Every structure is written in structure tokens, then in C-alpha cells.
Amino acid sequence: MIRLPKIPCSKLVANFVIAAGALIAHFGAHADDGMYDLAAPGHWRLAVSPYSYHFHYSEEHRYVWAIGAERQADSGWLWGGSYFSNSFGQPSGYVYIGKRYPGLFNTPQLFAQWSAGLLYGYKGQFQHKVPLNYRGYSPGALFSLGWAFNKETAAQVNLLGNSGLMLQFSYDFH
């Protein structure tokens, strides 16, 4: 049975909104160069991650899942956010920017993607499980390899630093 973590609504949502707003405001200010144009033609993507594999077993590890949404410009640049239960069962969030590279190795379905942004949620006794953590906030980055089954659906594997891999399925709303 999947147990969802208790959500400390006021604290988690407020911190997530502040972080997302700061990140979007910063990158939105650079829209004139086209790289972070949040209003550029593109599409929305919904992603779910039902399974993660840890490279090293620990009794402290809990079931990890994630749900997220991102906006991808036709140029491949993207921004988004996700809500997830981290490896220690704590409700967490990730706001980010990144880029997708379709047609990897001349294979139309194969793509690579990276994202970098701000994590929130690793607190208490687990605060040192992510680098540069300050009061639950830390930098984050994901590197991914994926396969597009068609124009709307894809699957990808996200590298979670030196901790593990996360399987992700996505649906694009064109």
C-alpha cells in the first residue's frame, strides 16, 4: 500500500511558492535573449514517477514517488516544478529550468534532458543527505535519458546524483 506523507500545507506550500516565484522571476527577466522565454510557443507536460532505485540500500529509505508539470518551449528550453516524497518519506519540492535534446544519435525517439534548480524538503536528521542544504533548501540537478513513444507519451530515467535512478512517464499536451 502506498502511504502518502502528511503535508504541512502552510509551510510547504508557502516555501514552494516563494522559491518558484523567485526562480521564474529571475529567468523570466532574461526572456529577451530567447533562452528563458516563458511565453514562447510550446506545450505543457505532466510527469509522474512511480519508482526509484537506490544505488545503496538503507533501512532509512522509503518509497519515492513524484508528480510534476513543466512548460517546454519549441526551442527545447523548459521550466517546471514537481512535488515528491523523498527517500526518507519527507514531502519535498523541486523548481527548475532545463533543456531537452530530441533526436539523440540520429534516433528521433531518443532524447536527453537536464534540469537545474532549487530543492526543498530535506530537513531534520536528513538535512545532510543533499549537498549545500540550508534550512531545507538546496540546489538540485537531474540528468535524464528518455524514449518518446509518440508525440504525446514518453518514458525517461532520471539520474539522482550518486543516490539512484528514477523512472518517469510523461504526457505532452500539444
UniProtKB/TrEMBL annotation:
Molecular function GO terms recorded: ATP binding
Q: Where is the signal peptide?
A: 1-31
Q: Which UniProt keywords apply?
A: ATP-binding, Nucleotide-binding, Signal
**Name of the featured protein:** ABC transporter ATP-binding protein
